[in-house]
Amino acid sequence: MSEEEKKELANLLFPNIIATREEIEQRYPKRKLDDGAKVTRFAPSPTGFMHIGNLESAFLDYIFATQSKGQFYIRLEDTDQERYVEGAVDLIKETLSNYGIMPSEGAFSSGQYGPYIQSMRKEIYQVYIKDLLLKGLAYPCFMSKEELQEIREGQELRKEAIGVYGYYAVDRDLSLDEVKKHLDHGDHYVIRIKSPGDINKQVILHDLIKGDITLPENIIDEVIMKKDGLPTYHFAHVIDDYLMHTTVVIRGDEWVPSYPKHLQLCQLLGFKTPKYAHYAPLTKKENGNIRKLSKRKDPEFSVSYYDEAGIPVEAVKLFLSTIINTNFEEWYLQNSDKSYIDFPFSFKKMPTGGTLFDTEKLNNICRTYFSRLTAEQIYEDSLIYYKKYDEEFYQLMLSNREKLVSFLDIERNGKRPRKDIATYQDIKQESSYLFSELFDQKKIVDSNLDLDVLEKYLQLYSGDDTQDEWYQKIQELASNNGYATSVKEYKNSPSDYKGHIGTICEELRYVITGRRQTPNLYDILKILGKEEIQKRIEFQK
Ligand code: GLU
Predict the structure, then answer these.
(1) Do 321 and 342 contact (CB within 8 A), yes or no?
(2) Ligand 1 site, residue 44, Cβ cutoff 6 A
């Protein structure tokens, strides 16, 4: 086509697009940021599901932008109208704000580089598409679904590259008259690029996480605009990242094979490419094989799982930090007053292959997280959880604030704070015996109990005793009733004793709480009070 014909074609297809690229670009001036500041974006498609990989992606965007004093923004990639799900946008918004990683710029706030919802940017994309038509770098393609299917089948059979390219790109060189005929006929069309790619050439992706990756050059005449006039993901995100001045695209490594396409689009459009950081997926071991986490098989794949399970958002972020940089966990354990944002994250230390989802690690980091909170903080945070998920316990919490806070405070402030709580659910689980509503005495069965000693203990007990006084009383009880006052004494001649002081404590603990293990018994007894202790011991008679 001559220059004149290209112009006619562009105007024929986009009569209402008047603006030029230059005009659009003036609306998106360079950001005023220091050297090295990263501009990142979270660009979800509203599909109605937020998985842990999406959260990781947003978290990475947040971390790297914040730590470099850059900017993080949100862009909604909703050009695939068929995949649109009602409520999906709210879910994304809610998740990001719950997790405290809502950026100040983007689809849910404001900013100078919007609109941040792709379906609202149709005209902008069309300006660039029209420009490519004017330059002869794109063309309308009228091929039907059936024709494309037929080509595909043939290519599969001959083991050729799949797609519209070279010989198969039959509409690439249509004359203006032929295009007009199609249009007169009302034929639907898409717009494709004229790929200059060479099947024998390769491109290199300099990935910030994975290092250099060699990939075949793109040869496909990719669709950049669909029949509905909206751009494809590939085209739209390239335009947006350019105009919004993204410096690093952080995304899942399922996009690595698309890189040659994106590179070529940037080249055709005359854009400098951003940097790329493709992170590996979370995986699981199943029957000796490694597979990606799946929506169907793994509840922990969904972000909602953590909320329901009572795993605090901060703990999930700490867990993500352990996945992102393997040296994080050790640092976190050594720095009890710090959180993830103080850790020097680096792309270079990110795993390049799949990362195993380690439930044990999640559990441990949760325990450490809780061990660093005050009792009041745990109480307040878990109240929110129980209000949402367990009305009965929520009410108990409200009417027993002091009791619960005292319980949570046991062994909390020393050098080695207790680590029995990993989730909000554990709070009910671990403290249930404090509440007569939840404590089932009938379940306490042990034929070896020395009830005589326990009853004698009742007479000695005073809520005013210090821990030392309390212990002395049990020692007395032991020696007056045929028990050794220390384990050592007992081990020296076991046949002389019924047991040792620990045996008494264990029985007491069991009768009072139904557990073999609890935080410090002295404190538990104090919280329960003499009357309740008496009731529980006497119940065994
Ligand atoms: N909308 C794409 C997705 O949801 C984003 C990929 C990207 O970050 O470039 O997978």
Answers:
(1) no
(2) yes
